[in-house]
Each structure stands twice: as C-alpha cells, then as structure tokens.
Amino acid sequence: MKYELVAGFETHVELATNTKIFCSCTTQFGGEPNTHCCPICIGLPGTLPKLNKRVVEYAIRAGLATNCHIAEISKMDRKNYCYPDLPKAYQISQYDKPLCEHGYIQLSNGRKIRILRIHIEEDAGKLVHRRGDTLVDYNRGGVPLIEIVTEPDFRSVDEAKEYVEKLQLIMRYIGVSDCKMQEGSMRCDVNISVRPEGSEKLGTRTEIKNMNSISFIAKAMEYEYNRQVDLIESGEKVIQETLRYDDVSNTTSSMRGKEDANDYRYFRDPDLVTINVPRERVEEIRAQLPELPEAKKNRYVEELGIPEKDAALLTKYIRIAGFFEETIKGTKNPKTAANFIIGQIFRSVETEAEKEAFDIKVSAEALNELIRLIDEGKIRMNLAKSTLDKMLETGKRASELIDEKDMGGLDESVLDDLCRQAVEGNPKAVADYLAGKEKAVKAMVGFVMKNSRGKADAALAEQKIIGIIKGQ
Amino acid sequence: MSQSNITKLHEGLVNKDFSCRELTEKYLKAIEKDNGELNAYVTVTPETAMETAEKVDEKISKGEDIALLEGIPMTLKDNISTDGIRTTCCSKILEDYTPIYDATVWKILKARNSVLLGKTNMDEFAMGSSCETSYFGGAKNPHNTGHVAGGSSGGVASAVGGNLAVFGLGSDTGGSIRQPASFCGIVGLKPTYGAVSRFGLIAYASSLDQIGPITTNVEDTAIVFDAISEYDKMDSTSKGSSVPVCGSLKNDIKGMKIGIAKEYLEGIREDVRKCIDEAISVYQSLGAEIVYFDIPSIKYALPVYYIIACAEASSNLGRYDGIRYGYKAENYRDVNDMIKKTRSTGFGDEVKRRILLGTYVLSSGYYDAYYKKAQSLRGTIVKAFREAFTKCDVMLAPTVPMTAFENGHAVSDPVETYQTDICTVPVNICGLPAVSVPCGFDEKGLPVGMQLIGNSFDEAKILNAAWQYEKTAGKFRAAGFGVSL
Amino acid sequence: MVTKEEIMKIAILSKLFVGEDEIDKLTEDMSGIISFADTINNAADAESDFDNINELSNVLREDEVVPSLDRDKILENAKDSDEGCFLVKNIMK
Hints:
Chain A is an alpha+beta fold and 472 residues long. Chain A has helices spanning 53-65, 157-173, 214-233, 279-288, 293-304, 308-315, 318-327, 334-348, 352-357, 364-375, 381-394, 398-401, 412-425, 427-434, 440-451, 458-471; strands at residues 3-14, 51-52, 69-70, 73-74, 77-80, 90-93, 100-106, 112-122, 126-130, 133-137, 144-150, 186-196, 206-211, 242-246, 251-254, 267-268, 275-276. In chain C, strands 2-3 form a two-stranded antiparallel sheet.
C-alpha cells in the first residue's frame, strides 16, 4: 500500500525589533549571559510588562504578507507552565484572539498552504547543562516572536522545504526578521502523520520540535514518514508524542515525557490591555509593504523579459533584487544587468550567506554606468565583461579602467584596414578556412580585437574577414 | 493632640517647632518600645529614615520650601518593592529578597523625602483577613492586642493606628486596606483601579490589586492619595487621577445622594448595624439624601472574587522557584524536585490553598464552570454598580460585618473567614474607589468602620463625604501606643 | 466534591508536594472551598463579557533601547550563580 504524508508547521520567527516585547532591553543576539536583562525580563516580583508597539506592527506586516485577516480586537494571554527558562512561570502569548488568522502561502505547484494563525509571544531564556548543573541565561527571554501555524496541508517533503524557504524569504522581504535558522531566529516544529493514499481520515500525528535547518527538516520528515509507515505496516500503532530530531544519527526520538501532563491554563493577562487594530491602520501598513518576492519575480519575467529561472535567482535575496533594480535604472536592456549579476558577480558571492549579505566592491550605480556605456555603443560587450571583472577585483569605476580613446566605436575604415591586415598576415588560417575549417576565422577575429584594443565589433569583423577571403 | 496630622506636622517642621530628625527619632524610639507588642513592623530602617530626615532638616535650615509629605515619617506594606531594602511579602519564600528597583509609589514618595521608618507586616502574599498568615506572626490591634489588626495590610493599620507612623501605604485586593483600617479605627482608601501605579507591588491578583493610603484622618488620606495617583508608563493599566481631591474635601454635601444597597446590610452584626444607622442619621442631618436600592448580584461577589483572585494568584506566584531570588530548598534530586521542594516549604498553608484553588478553576475541564463563569458574573456586577451610580453620588456600607477577630480565630475555617470579606470585595471586582472611616465602637471598645463607595475616579466625592462625616461625628480614638504628639 | 486524585493532579501543575499526612485534610478544605465557589453556578448566565477592568486599549511602548541592568545586580538575589548565569547545582553528583 502507498502512504500519503500529511504535515503541518508551527514556525517561530524572532522579530527584528530593537527591544524585547515587554521591556526596553536590547534583542541583540549573543552577548555575555544575563547582560541583556532587567527586573522585568527576569520576572522580578512586582514588575509589569509593557507591549512594544513595533511587535504589533511587525506581526500585522507578517499577517498581510501571508494573506491573513488582521483581527480588529486582540489581547494577550498567559500560558502557564513552570520551567527554569521561563522566569515568570508563564509565557505571555495569544490564545483565542491571535492578531492574524486565515492566510495562505501558495507553492509553485499551485497548492495553497493555509495559515491558521499568527500570534505574538515572548521567547524563553536559555538553559545550558554542564556536568549535571543547570545554568540559566535570560538574554533571549522576552525577545519577541511570532508563531505561524499552518493547517496540515503538506503532502510532501519538497512542499515543506519550499514553504520554509518561501516563508523565510517573505519575512526577510518585509523586514520583520532575519530568519537566521542557525542562530535560532527561525525554528520549526512539524506535525506529521501518514495515511493510506486516498484515505480522508487523518492518522495519529507526532510532533518534531525545534528544528533549525531546512535540510534537517527534510531529513527528519523523511525519517519520521518512514518510521510511521513501518510501524503501521508491521501492525503497530503510532503514538501521539513529541519528538526530537538528532541530526548526527538522523533519527527522531521521544522527548522524555515531562512528569506533568500539559495543561497550560490559558487566561487573559490582566497586566495588559486590549489591542485594537483600526482598519485604517491595517491599510496603512498594507500600503507600506514592499513588493513581495513572488510578485517581484513575476514582474521581472513579464515586464523585463528576464527568463523565469534568472528571475527566481535575482529575487531570492532581497539585497540582490534591490541591487538589480538600481542597476537597470535608465538602461535599455535589463537582461544585460541580469546576466552580469548571475554570471560574473555570482562567482564572487558563492555561499548563501554571501549572497544574503551581498557585500561586493561594485555599487549598483557603478554597474549602471558600465551598462550605459554599452547601451550608448561606447564599448563592446567583451570589453565590458573584462572591465566588470576588474571592477569586482579593484572596486574602481569603469571610467577609471577604460581609456577615453578606447571609448566610442571603431571607425569603419580602420576596421576594414585591420581586417585586411588579419587576412594578409595569417595565410595559414585563410587556407584552413578555405579547406572547410570554419573555426579558423576566429584566430583572425582575435587579431582584429587585439589590435583594436577590444573596440571592434567581433561579429562585424568576422563578416568582413569572411568577405575579404571570399572576395580574394 | 494625639491624632497625627500631616498638615500640622508640616507646619511644625516649617516653623522649626521641631526638627525632622527629632520627629523621626521619636517614631523610631516608639517603634523600639512598642513594636514587640504590636508586631507591626517586620523591617525597621533607621539609617534610611535618619538620612532622609537630615536631608529635610538641611533644606529647612537653608530656607528652602518643602512639600507637604517631606519629612513625614511613614511606612510601606512589605509587598511594595524598595530598592536595597528587603521586601518579603511576609513569606518564607522571600524572607531574604532585596529588590533592585523601586515601586513607582515609593519612587514618588522617596523623591519627596518622605521618611521611611520600615516595612510593615501583612498576611503572606496579602492572602488573609487577619494578618495571621504572615511568616513573622500577625500584627496586633492597637485597641486591644488580644485581637488582630486585620488583613492583609494589618501591619500598616497597626502602625498607623498605634502611632508608629503618620501614614502608610497598603494594598487592597479584596479589602486589605479597608478591613484593617476599620479594625484599627482609622482611615483607609482603596483607590479606583488604575489611579495608582501597581509597578513594584508584588502581585497577588493583578486585576484587583490597588495601592492606597492608610492614615488617621480623611485629610491625610486625601493628601497622600493626591501624591501617589500619578499616571505611570510602567503600568499598562495605569490611568492616574486627573483632579486633586484635596481641593474639594470641605465642599458642602447638602443634596448629595447617598445610596444604600440593602444586600450590604444583610447578615451584619447588630452593633455594626447600629453604627451604620447612626452614620446615616449624621448624613441626613448634613442635608444628604438617602436612597435605598437592591443590587442582587452582590451575593455572587464573594465566590467570584475568590475564583478570580486565586486564578490570577496561581499564575502570579508560579515564579517563586528558588532560581533567581528568594528561598531555595537545599536537598533535591533535580531541578523539578528543587522547585517543588522550594515552593512546598517556602509557602504557607493559606497561600498553597489559594494556589491550588486557582490552578483548579483554570484547569481544563473546570475553566468554563468556574473561571469563565466568574468573569461573566464580574461583568454583571460591574454593570449593576454602574446602574446603581445613576441613582446616587456615593454609596454607604459597612466595611466589615463585625469587629476585629480575637487572635487565632480566623485561621480555623477558611470558608468562614472568607465570608468576612463580603462587604469589601464588590468594590475590587468593579475597580471602584472606597474609603473606610471609623464610625463607632463595639462594647469591647473595638472600632467599627463604614465605607463610602464611589463611581470610577470619584475619589473626590467619597473623601468629601467622609471628611464631612468626620468633622461632624468623627469617631477617632487614640490607642495607647506609640508617639504622643 | 473534589477527589484526592484531582488534588494530586492540580498539586503537580502547581509544583507543590502534598504529603500523605496532608492529603485528607487538604481534600476536605478544598472541597469546602470549591463547593463555596460552586455557588456562582446558581446564577443565570450573564450576557456581558468582561473586558479589562479599566477599559483601556493600545497602551504601547516605543521600540527604544534602554541600557540593561548591571549583571551583578541581576544575579544579586540568586542563591547560586556561576559564569554569569543563574545556577541550579547538581547536588547528586
């Protein structure tokens, strides 16, 4: 029998605010333990939370970017559970009135992954275990999070991977999070069950907690899918439980059942007041949203004539898309810029992180200048290419690297002269060409290019050379 | 004169009849002498007090103006955070906890050079009606030390009633300012929810807690209230009070409508009832109009109060785990075991009972029948009081259906003890202001109190009515303790 | 009526130990308190939904950093700390 995978995601995204959600301590990553703390975020008796305005705004942005409905009235609730990383023994979160609900993200296969809700909450601190001792650092405690919960709409690992990538990209585009999975600013929990293909009934699900890399998510899901199928086929039952994925052994294992059954005893936090989101405010935030990756890509294809594959590469990183758009301003052919970026420039930013940072020596404005020289017919493509390499290497501008006398087209008579010299000076190549070796003409074109310092139009030179040979 | 009075003390300081140092020393000596018997203070802070006193004396000697509360010896209930001064909530779990920040109310008074004599006794985490759940033993009633000072702010009431402080700040969640003020024959104001910042007040029940003054007379209460009722950006539920109440204290109350909800008079002791009736006559003689009505939903106020208060408390008190502050168990197997041992030995019985009740009413399967239902009834009661204030300006009610219990009486039956809060809790449920003023004595000479209840932010009205009563028929009687001025 | 089992369950959630010697008395006390709390269920269902008591909304803070507290202060009240962290020692080793 064939089994279908059914999965849903709960993704925690740390918001890129300056301060924590309920106090004015910095949210900066790292820092010596307990140096980003105050009486409020270590839960000293008598302290009270005060909600950060930007957290609400960012969550609304995230909701709008994922097609959610934004609640008119929302509130904060307490989720009660006692654990040393949670200084108040409750997490301030949202229970029955989340800020955003009922959105979706569309995948490339056309399927929509429904988003059930997005709510705001505070992060917990960090526990470090050292030879049985427990050390607690509350620097991360109180950092604002949004939790994005999907319906169980995933049917394959590839869909899951695409969703996580898309979500990451959207959050970065709208500037609410850097979504650095390795630093924990984006973490995924995945619910997984399997069912016989064609069946409507959901199987028993397990939950894999806290995964912080896309490849781990994929591996963990594959492992868990196979494990569940094996269990069912051998007549055993899947137990509903919470699992941890171990990336070294590539297996999932049960997180030791905490002694206490979970009963979070949610209730409204009496220390915080109602959140009201006027419709005008929602529209303001909507109007300020940047163009989202999907829309941008489509525009590149439809309006700029960029091939789909290239458009996808350009829009995958918000800095690169921005660089591209700066570069093509006032130029005639956006494809030239796209080719420069994807071809030559990408060679110097190979890794994901480098592409993300996109820290290169050439400014968009400098590349724009180079492309204008091509547009104006002042330099040929091959000179432009070699110039760009030098620009990437030295950080100098095209105008500093190309002589004035190299600019401008080559006079027709000079070109004719050079072509004639090429034919006369290369009898062997001429003979080869006449013998059917068409490639032999390239050597003569090379001669023209070299002696024109790259200014000659190679195609035109080739035409002329062939003309001369044939006319002889 | 044996009744302390902020205005007179202020004049005395300004006129150099006595120095702030002398005044402060007098109180510190009285505490040394009488606190053994009253057990009002759990921490005395002579250094802080003398330091402030010297500062004030220096200002006076330089001819600088001083504010009304400058140099006035006072106390804070031990659940109000004081930077560098231990704040215990009278619990073993916080026995050696020293806050690293100031509660907003203390920040305000500190900036005005009020002289902090020390921190006063209370029921553990403000949970109790007799002060006897205190880890340090209960505070005694200055009118008869065989009786309790009341709770939970028993220490403040005992100190102010026993002349060991000119004024004090307590907190009132279900009557914790008004009940001990009533038991000790003094004045206590529970302000409108949001009038005074809760930042730094160690929470019992966040939607009910409110800090307020306890003083010997209405004018002092008005002065202190005006000082502390500031908007505070640190407290999201803070509103502050816009109009000072001192200005309208002495207004004529002719034509003022005083409402009596019959439910408040049911089941109260006969002698208490008699005092209330006399007070009604006093108001009639002052030209006030008495209107009677029913607020039937008051009968649900007590269980609603206990459900909501305990639910919030169970969550508020989850943080005492021994890791960041306070008591920590010494022998344990692992982190979880340490936390459980810390809490089991650190909290007293009443606190544990309320945590358990709060956990119960919030737990799955019971939430709807208890917490949710209580919240919806809270809405009903709020509406009923709003409606009542369309018929009257202020309401009059007994503060407590009886006078101060004998020592040890309150701890035997929890539910029976809860019943004594019947007259005080509705105000907390509705977030309304109420002031308790002395209105008589029982046959043993124990004080009886009445409360004047106002609509939201109507502190000016209730204090006006209270001041007029006090001026006409005031029932303050000095107890035989402390400073005699 | 509350059962011993229910008391044990809520004790675990509350992170409290209830000793064998305490459970009977505690169950009795809690039964009394809960039947007292139960009296609210005699009231008709109220139509009013209770919001926050002082009817405030959107009390928000600007996203501006204030320097954090000195770490020594943060750790001052902890019984045990090490390496700048709050510490729960493993005393079984």
